[in-house]
Amino acid sequence: MNAFACGHAAHPDWRMALTMAAAQIDAQPQAPQGFTLGFAYFSDHYAAQAEALLAALRARWPGVAWVGSVGVGVLASGVEYFDEPALALLLAPLPREQFRVFSGAQPLAGFAAFSALVHADPGTPELAELLPELSQRTASGYLFGGLAASRNGVRHLADGVWQGALSGVAFTQDVALLSRVTQGCQPIGPVRRITAAEDHAVLALDGEPALRCLLRDLGMTLDEPRKLLPRLRSTLVGLSEETEAMLARGALFGTDTRVRHLVGVDPAREVVAVAERVQPGMRLAFCGRDVQAARRDLVRICSEIRDELETQALDRGAAVGATQPAPGAAAPADAATRAIAGAIYISCAGRGGPHFGAPSAEAQIVRHALGDVPLVGFFASGEIARHHLYGYTGVLTVFTVP
Protein backbone atom coordinates (compact mmCIF):
# COMPACT_ATOMS: atom_id res chain seq x y z
CA MET A 1 0.00 0.00 0.00
CA ASN A 2 1.31 3.45 -0.89
CA ALA A 3 0.99 6.44 1.40
CA PHE A 4 -2.26 8.34 1.57
CA ALA A 5 -2.40 12.09 0.89
CA CYS A 6 -4.24 14.70 2.93
CA GLY A 7 -5.15 18.37 2.75
CA HIS A 8 -7.06 20.69 5.05
CA ALA A 9 -8.09 24.33 5.22
CA ALA A 10 -10.43 26.82 6.84
CA HIS A 11 -12.27 29.53 4.92
CA PRO A 12 -15.75 31.12 5.03
CA ASP A 13 -16.28 29.91 1.45
CA TRP A 14 -16.16 26.11 1.10
CA ARG A 15 -14.91 26.47 -2.47
CA MET A 16 -11.80 28.31 -1.31
CA ALA A 17 -11.23 25.76 1.46
CA LEU A 18 -11.45 22.95 -1.10
CA THR A 19 -9.05 24.76 -3.44
CA MET A 20 -6.47 25.19 -0.67
CA ALA A 21 -6.81 21.60 0.54
CA ALA A 22 -6.51 20.28 -3.03
CA ALA A 23 -3.34 22.33 -3.55
CA GLN A 24 -1.78 20.62 -0.53
CA ILE A 25 -2.69 17.20 -1.92
CA ASP A 26 -1.33 18.12 -5.36
CA ALA A 27 2.01 18.98 -3.75
CA GLN A 28 2.36 15.46 -2.35
CA PRO A 29 3.70 12.50 -4.36
CA GLN A 30 0.90 10.84 -6.29
CA ALA A 31 0.35 7.10 -5.84
CA PRO A 32 1.34 5.19 -8.98
CA GLN A 33 -2.08 3.61 -9.44
CA GLY A 34 -3.99 6.74 -8.46
CA PHE A 35 -6.43 7.48 -5.68
CA THR A 36 -9.58 5.38 -5.39
CA LEU A 37 -11.10 6.23 -2.00
CA GLY A 38 -11.54 9.61 -0.34
CA PHE A 39 -12.49 10.59 3.21
CA ALA A 40 -14.07 14.05 3.57
CA TYR A 41 -14.82 15.68 6.92
CA PHE A 42 -16.32 19.15 7.00
CA SER A 43 -17.56 21.45 9.75
CA ASP A 44 -21.25 22.19 10.14
CA HIS A 45 -20.70 25.66 8.66
CA TYR A 46 -20.69 23.81 5.31
CA ALA A 47 -23.57 21.44 6.09
CA ALA A 48 -26.04 23.15 3.77
CA GLN A 49 -23.52 22.90 0.91
CA ALA A 50 -22.83 19.17 1.34
CA GLU A 51 -24.29 18.22 -2.06
CA ALA A 52 -22.29 20.91 -3.86
CA LEU A 53 -19.15 19.93 -1.97
CA LEU A 54 -19.50 16.27 -2.94
CA ALA A 55 -20.06 17.25 -6.59
CA ALA A 56 -16.90 19.37 -6.51
CA LEU A 57 -14.90 16.52 -4.97
CA ARG A 58 -16.05 14.17 -7.71
CA ALA A 59 -15.17 16.70 -10.41
CA ARG A 60 -11.72 17.32 -8.92
CA TRP A 61 -10.88 13.60 -8.46
CA PRO A 62 -12.90 11.60 -11.02
CA GLY A 63 -13.41 7.95 -10.16
CA VAL A 64 -12.75 8.37 -6.43
CA ALA A 65 -15.40 6.97 -4.06
CA TRP A 66 -16.16 9.35 -1.20
CA VAL A 67 -17.23 8.80 2.41
CA GLY A 68 -17.31 11.26 5.28
CA SER A 69 -19.35 13.29 7.72
CA VAL A 70 -20.17 16.69 9.08
CA GLY A 71 -18.86 17.61 12.53
CA VAL A 72 -18.78 20.61 14.85
CA GLY A 73 -15.08 20.58 14.10
CA VAL A 74 -12.55 18.76 11.94
CA LEU A 75 -8.91 17.90 12.44
CA ALA A 76 -5.79 16.91 10.58
CA SER A 77 -2.25 16.05 11.60
CA GLY A 78 -1.43 18.41 14.47
CA VAL A 79 -4.24 20.91 13.84
CA GLU A 80 -7.89 21.28 14.86
CA TYR A 81 -10.55 23.50 13.32
CA PHE A 82 -13.20 23.72 16.01
CA ASP A 83 -16.37 25.76 15.53
CA GLU A 84 -15.16 27.37 12.30
CA PRO A 85 -15.75 26.73 8.57
CA ALA A 86 -13.20 24.09 7.54
CA LEU A 87 -12.69 20.75 5.85
CA ALA A 88 -10.14 17.94 5.91
CA LEU A 89 -9.56 15.46 3.07
CA LEU A 90 -7.70 12.16 2.94
CA LEU A 91 -7.19 10.23 -0.29
CA ALA A 92 -6.16 6.57 -0.43
CA PRO A 93 -4.79 4.43 -3.31
CA LEU A 94 -6.50 1.20 -2.23
CA PRO A 95 -7.22 -1.49 -4.80
CA ARG A 96 -10.91 -1.19 -5.62
CA GLU A 97 -11.63 -4.82 -4.82
CA GLN A 98 -10.49 -4.22 -1.22
CA PHE A 99 -13.28 -1.83 -0.22
CA ARG A 100 -16.96 -1.14 -0.78
CA VAL A 101 -18.93 1.99 0.07
CA PHE A 102 -22.29 1.22 1.67
CA SER A 103 -25.48 3.07 2.60
CA GLY A 104 -29.20 2.43 2.65
CA ALA A 105 -29.09 2.46 -1.15
CA GLN A 106 -25.91 0.36 -1.40
CA PRO A 107 -25.97 -2.67 0.91
CA LEU A 108 -22.98 -4.82 1.77
CA ALA A 109 -24.47 -8.05 0.43
CA GLY A 110 -21.96 -10.17 -1.46
CA PHE A 111 -18.87 -8.35 -0.17
CA ALA A 112 -16.31 -10.10 2.08
CA ALA A 113 -16.19 -7.36 4.71
CA PHE A 114 -13.57 -7.73 7.43
CA SER A 115 -13.89 -4.29 9.10
CA ALA A 116 -15.77 -1.07 8.41
CA LEU A 117 -15.67 2.68 8.91
CA VAL A 118 -19.15 3.88 9.92
CA HIS A 119 -20.78 7.31 10.02
CA ALA A 120 -24.30 7.69 11.37
CA ASP A 121 -27.05 10.15 12.18
CA PRO A 122 -27.37 10.39 15.98
CA GLY A 123 -31.15 10.68 15.61
CA THR A 124 -31.45 7.26 13.99
CA PRO A 125 -33.93 5.08 15.91
CA GLU A 126 -32.51 1.86 17.33
CA LEU A 127 -28.96 2.88 16.43
CA ALA A 128 -27.66 0.85 19.37
CA GLU A 129 -29.17 -2.24 17.74
CA LEU A 130 -28.05 -1.43 14.19
CA LEU A 131 -24.36 -1.28 15.10
CA PRO A 132 -24.15 -4.86 16.47
CA GLU A 133 -26.09 -6.05 13.42
CA LEU A 134 -23.59 -4.39 11.08
CA SER A 135 -20.70 -5.66 13.18
CA GLN A 136 -21.93 -9.22 12.67
CA ARG A 137 -21.67 -8.72 8.90
CA THR A 138 -17.90 -8.26 9.17
CA ALA A 139 -15.51 -11.15 9.72
CA SER A 140 -13.61 -9.38 12.50
CA GLY A 141 -16.66 -7.75 14.07
CA TYR A 142 -14.72 -4.48 14.16
CA LEU A 143 -16.36 -1.16 13.36
CA PHE A 144 -14.83 2.28 13.84
CA GLY A 145 -16.28 5.71 13.21
CA GLY A 146 -18.57 8.31 14.72
CA LEU A 147 -21.92 10.08 14.74
CA ALA A 148 -22.35 13.21 12.67
CA ALA A 149 -22.47 16.40 14.73
CA SER A 150 -24.09 19.55 13.40
CA ARG A 151 -26.11 22.60 14.38
CA ASN A 152 -27.15 23.12 10.75
CA GLY A 153 -28.49 19.74 9.66
CA VAL A 154 -26.85 16.33 9.90
CA ARG A 155 -25.16 15.01 6.76
CA HIS A 156 -22.93 12.01 6.07
CA LEU A 157 -21.36 10.98 2.78
CA ALA A 158 -21.22 7.61 1.02
CA ASP A 159 -21.14 8.24 -2.73
CA GLY A 160 -24.08 10.49 -1.99
CA VAL A 161 -25.31 12.79 0.76
CA TRP A 162 -27.40 11.06 3.41
CA GLN A 163 -29.57 12.04 6.36
CA GLY A 164 -30.63 9.45 8.89
CA ALA A 165 -29.43 5.84 9.30
CA LEU A 166 -25.78 4.99 8.74
CA SER A 167 -23.26 4.68 5.94
CA GLY A 168 -19.55 4.15 5.43
CA VAL A 169 -16.99 1.93 3.77
CA ALA A 170 -16.15 -1.71 4.44
CA PHE A 171 -12.71 -3.23 3.92
CA THR A 172 -11.50 -6.72 3.15
CA GLN A 173 -8.90 -8.47 5.27
CA ASP A 174 -6.23 -7.25 2.84
CA VAL A 175 -6.55 -3.71 4.23
CA ALA A 176 -4.33 -3.78 7.31
CA LEU A 177 -5.29 -1.44 10.13
CA LEU A 178 -4.83 -0.93 13.86
CA SER A 179 -7.42 0.80 16.02
CA ARG A 180 -7.63 1.87 19.66
CA VAL A 181 -10.16 3.63 21.91
CA THR A 182 -9.06 6.30 24.38
CA GLN A 183 -11.26 7.23 27.33
CA GLY A 184 -11.84 10.75 28.62
CA CYS A 185 -13.44 10.13 32.02
CA GLN A 186 -12.27 8.78 35.36
CA PRO A 187 -14.29 6.95 38.04
CA ILE A 188 -15.09 8.87 41.22
CA GLY A 189 -16.18 5.74 43.09
CA PRO A 190 -16.00 1.96 42.97
CA VAL A 191 -17.37 -0.32 40.28
CA ARG A 192 -20.69 -1.80 41.39
CA ARG A 193 -23.09 -4.34 39.96
CA ILE A 194 -26.60 -3.27 38.98
CA THR A 195 -28.89 -5.51 41.00
CA ALA A 196 -32.23 -3.90 40.14
CA ALA A 197 -33.20 -1.79 37.10
CA GLU A 198 -36.18 -0.67 35.03
CA ASP A 199 -35.51 0.62 31.51
CA HIS A 200 -33.24 3.69 32.07
CA ALA A 201 -33.62 3.67 35.86
CA VAL A 202 -30.99 2.15 38.13
CA LEU A 203 -32.82 1.06 41.25
CA ALA A 204 -30.10 -0.71 43.19
CA LEU A 205 -26.33 -1.20 43.11
CA ASP A 206 -24.91 -4.17 45.00
CA GLY A 207 -28.31 -4.43 46.71
CA GLU A 208 -28.26 -0.81 47.94
CA PRO A 209 -30.40 2.08 46.62
CA ALA A 210 -28.57 3.65 43.66
CA LEU A 211 -28.96 7.27 44.77
CA ARG A 212 -27.50 6.43 48.16
CA CYS A 213 -24.39 5.05 46.44
CA LEU A 214 -24.08 8.12 44.22
CA LEU A 215 -24.31 10.54 47.16
CA ARG A 216 -21.66 8.58 49.02
CA ASP A 217 -19.29 8.74 46.04
CA LEU A 218 -19.85 12.50 45.79
CA GLY A 219 -19.42 12.98 49.52
CA MET A 220 -22.71 14.91 49.69
CA THR A 221 -26.26 14.64 51.03
CA LEU A 222 -29.71 15.76 49.93
CA ASP A 223 -29.60 18.42 52.63
CA GLU A 224 -27.30 20.55 50.42
CA PRO A 225 -29.37 21.04 47.24
CA ARG A 226 -27.53 24.17 46.06
CA LYS A 227 -24.16 22.43 46.24
CA LEU A 228 -25.49 19.09 45.06
CA LEU A 229 -27.15 20.19 41.80
CA PRO A 230 -23.94 21.40 40.06
CA ARG A 231 -22.16 18.20 41.08
CA LEU A 232 -24.97 16.06 39.68
CA ARG A 233 -24.87 17.98 36.39
CA SER A 234 -21.17 17.24 35.99
CA THR A 235 -21.42 13.59 36.98
CA LEU A 236 -21.48 10.86 34.32
CA VAL A 237 -21.97 7.10 34.39
CA GLY A 238 -19.66 4.39 33.09
CA LEU A 239 -21.41 1.17 32.03
CA SER A 240 -20.09 -2.21 30.95
CA GLU A 241 -21.23 -5.80 30.55
CA GLU A 242 -17.72 -6.95 31.41
CA THR A 243 -17.10 -8.21 34.91
CA GLU A 244 -13.33 -7.86 35.07
CA ALA A 245 -12.16 -5.36 32.44
CA MET A 246 -14.10 -2.23 33.39
CA LEU A 247 -11.05 -0.78 35.10
CA ALA A 248 -8.46 -2.49 32.95
CA ARG A 249 -5.77 0.11 33.67
CA GLY A 250 -5.98 0.77 37.36
CA ALA A 251 -8.08 3.90 37.88
CA LEU A 252 -8.88 4.33 34.17
CA PHE A 253 -11.80 2.82 32.29
CA GLY A 254 -11.15 -0.06 29.91
CA THR A 255 -12.25 -0.02 26.29
CA ASP A 256 -15.48 -1.91 27.00
CA THR A 257 -16.81 0.90 29.20
CA ARG A 258 -19.37 3.27 27.71
CA VAL A 259 -19.85 6.68 29.32
CA ARG A 260 -23.41 7.99 29.49
CA HIS A 261 -25.08 11.06 30.95
CA LEU A 262 -26.83 11.05 34.30
CA VAL A 263 -30.29 12.30 33.31
CA GLY A 264 -32.11 12.46 36.64
CA VAL A 265 -32.56 11.30 40.21
CA ASP A 266 -35.64 10.44 42.25
CA PRO A 267 -34.99 11.21 45.93
CA ALA A 268 -38.25 9.58 47.04
CA ARG A 269 -37.36 6.21 45.48
CA GLU A 270 -33.58 6.73 45.71
CA VAL A 271 -33.33 5.97 42.00
CA VAL A 272 -30.80 7.21 39.41
CA ALA A 273 -31.71 7.54 35.70
CA VAL A 274 -29.09 7.26 32.96
CA ALA A 275 -29.08 7.82 29.18
CA GLU A 276 -29.09 4.13 28.27
CA ARG A 277 -31.31 1.17 28.97
CA VAL A 278 -29.77 -0.79 31.81
CA GLN A 279 -30.20 -4.34 33.04
CA PRO A 280 -29.37 -6.21 36.21
CA GLY A 281 -25.88 -7.68 36.03
CA MET A 282 -24.29 -4.74 34.25
CA ARG A 283 -21.37 -2.99 35.93
CA LEU A 284 -21.62 0.72 36.75
CA ALA A 285 -19.25 3.36 38.07
CA PHE A 286 -20.03 7.03 38.56
CA CYS A 287 -17.41 9.19 36.89
CA GLY A 288 -16.40 12.65 35.74
CA ARG A 289 -14.38 14.21 32.95
CA ASP A 290 -10.66 14.41 33.73
CA VAL A 291 -8.31 16.29 31.39
CA GLN A 292 -5.09 14.83 32.73
CA ALA A 293 -6.46 11.29 32.61
CA ALA A 294 -7.64 11.91 29.04
CA ARG A 295 -4.18 13.14 28.01
CA ARG A 296 -2.47 10.16 29.60
CA ASP A 297 -4.82 7.69 27.98
CA LEU A 298 -4.42 9.29 24.54
CA VAL A 299 -0.64 9.01 24.87
CA ARG A 300 -1.09 5.40 25.93
CA ILE A 301 -3.07 4.32 22.85
CA CYS A 302 -0.67 6.14 20.53
CA SER A 303 2.23 4.37 22.22
CA GLU A 304 0.50 1.00 21.89
CA ILE A 305 0.01 1.52 18.16
CA ARG A 306 3.57 2.76 17.70
CA ASP A 307 5.01 -0.14 19.69
CA GLU A 308 3.03 -2.69 17.69
CA LEU A 309 4.21 -1.16 14.41
CA GLU A 310 7.80 -1.13 15.61
CA THR A 311 7.55 -4.79 16.58
CA GLN A 312 6.08 -5.66 13.20
CA ALA A 313 8.90 -3.77 11.46
CA LEU A 314 11.55 -5.56 13.51
CA ASP A 315 9.91 -8.93 12.82
CA ARG A 316 9.87 -8.23 9.08
CA GLY A 317 13.49 -7.16 9.23
CA ALA A 318 14.46 -10.33 11.07
CA ALA A 319 12.54 -12.44 8.57
CA VAL A 320 14.59 -11.06 5.66
CA GLY A 321 17.86 -10.98 7.59
CA ALA A 322 18.00 -7.20 7.97
CA THR A 323 20.42 -5.67 10.42
CA GLN A 324 18.76 -4.84 13.73
CA PRO A 325 19.07 -1.23 14.95
CA ALA A 326 21.42 -0.55 17.81
CA PRO A 327 19.89 0.05 21.27
CA GLY A 328 18.78 3.66 21.59
CA ALA A 329 18.80 4.29 17.85
CA ALA A 330 15.95 6.25 16.29
CA ALA A 331 15.24 3.64 13.62
CA PRO A 332 12.29 1.89 15.34
CA ALA A 333 10.28 5.09 15.77
CA ASP A 334 11.05 6.02 12.16
CA ALA A 335 9.99 2.54 11.11
CA ALA A 336 6.68 2.95 12.94
CA THR A 337 5.99 6.24 11.20
CA ARG A 338 6.92 4.81 7.80
CA ALA A 339 4.57 1.88 8.42
CA ILE A 340 1.54 4.22 8.65
CA ALA A 341 -0.04 4.85 5.25
CA GLY A 342 -2.72 7.11 6.73
CA ALA A 343 -4.88 7.56 9.81
CA ILE A 344 -8.34 8.64 10.96
CA TYR A 345 -8.99 10.07 14.42
CA ILE A 346 -12.56 10.66 15.59
CA SER A 347 -12.96 12.48 18.89
CA CYS A 348 -15.97 13.48 20.93
CA ALA A 349 -17.22 17.03 20.47
CA GLY A 350 -17.05 17.29 24.27
CA ARG A 351 -13.27 16.78 24.08
CA GLY A 352 -12.66 19.33 21.32
CA GLY A 353 -11.64 22.95 21.53
CA PRO A 354 -10.23 24.08 24.88
CA HIS A 355 -10.79 20.83 26.82
CA PHE A 356 -7.17 19.70 26.41
CA GLY A 357 -5.87 23.08 27.55
CA ALA A 358 -4.68 24.69 24.31
CA PRO A 359 -5.70 25.06 20.65
CA SER A 360 -5.09 21.85 18.70
CA ALA A 361 -3.59 20.17 21.80
CA GLU A 362 -5.35 16.84 21.23
CA ALA A 363 -4.26 16.60 17.60
CA GLN A 364 -0.71 17.60 18.53
CA ILE A 365 -0.48 14.76 21.06
CA VAL A 366 -1.32 12.32 18.28
CA ARG A 367 1.17 13.86 15.85
CA HIS A 368 3.94 13.87 18.48
CA ALA A 369 3.39 10.16 19.10
CA LEU A 370 2.84 8.91 15.54
CA GLY A 371 4.81 11.42 13.50
CA ASP A 372 3.50 13.76 10.81
CA VAL A 373 1.49 11.12 8.98
CA PRO A 374 -1.52 11.78 6.69
CA LEU A 375 -4.35 12.02 9.24
CA VAL A 376 -7.83 13.52 9.25
CA GLY A 377 -10.92 13.25 11.43
CA PHE A 378 -13.79 15.10 13.03
CA PHE A 379 -15.43 15.94 16.35
CA ALA A 380 -18.47 13.71 16.68
CA SER A 381 -21.58 13.46 18.82
CA GLY A 382 -20.69 9.86 19.65
CA GLU A 383 -17.87 7.50 18.76
CA ILE A 384 -18.07 3.98 17.33
CA ALA A 385 -15.66 1.14 18.04
CA ARG A 386 -16.34 -2.56 17.62
CA HIS A 387 -20.13 -2.76 18.06
CA HIS A 388 -20.32 -0.13 20.81
CA LEU A 389 -21.40 3.49 20.80
CA TYR A 390 -19.18 5.58 23.09
CA GLY A 391 -19.13 9.08 24.53
CA TYR A 392 -16.26 11.37 25.59
CA THR A 393 -13.77 9.07 23.85
CA GLY A 394 -11.44 9.17 20.88
CA VAL A 395 -11.06 6.40 18.27
CA LEU A 396 -7.70 6.32 16.50
CA THR A 397 -7.30 4.05 13.48
CA VAL A 398 -4.16 3.75 11.35
CA PHE A 399 -3.93 2.07 7.96
CA THR A 400 -0.63 0.26 7.80
CA VAL A 401 1.78 -0.62 5.03
CA PRO A 402 1.92 -4.44 4.63
Describe this structure in words.
The structure is a single chain. With 402 residues, the protein is an alpha+beta fold. It has 2 domains: 5-183 and 293-400, no CATH class; 185-289, Elongation Factor Tu (Ef-tu), domain 3. It has 8 helices and 26 strands. Strands 1-6-2-3-10-11 form a 6-stranded mixed beta sheet. A 6-stranded mixed beta sheet has the order 5-4-23-22-26-13. Helix 3 (127-135) links the parallel strand 8 and strand 9. The longest helix is centred in the last third of the chain and has 29 residues, at 291-319. It starts with a strand and ends with a strand.
Count helical runs. Answer: 8
Unreliable segments of 5+ consecutive residues? 325-333
The whole-number mean of residue pLDDT values reads 90
Major beta sheet summary: 6 strands, mixed
Strand order of the largest sheet: 1-6-2-3-10-11
User: How much of the residues is beta strand, in percent?
Assistant: 25-35%
* Whole-number count of domains: 2
Outline, from the CA principal axes?
Answer: globular
Rg value: 22 Å
Strands, count: 26
What structural class do the secondary elements suggest?
alpha+beta
Helix content: 10-25%
Distance between the termini: 7 Å
What keywords describe this structure?
402 residues, alpha+beta, Elongation Factor Tu (Ef-tu), domain 3, 6-stranded mixed beta sheet
Short structural summary:
The chain has 402 residues and is α+β, with helices and mostly antiparallel strands. The chain has helices spanning 14-26, 50-60, 127-135, 210-218, 225-233, 291-319, 331-338, 361-370, and strands at residues 5-10, 37-43, 65-71, 73-76, 79-82, 86-92, 99-102, 115-120, 142-147, 156-158, 161-162, 166-171, 177-182, 185-187, 192-198, 201-205, 208-209, 236-240, 258-266, 271-274, 283-289, 340-348, 375-380, 383-385, 388-390, 394-400.
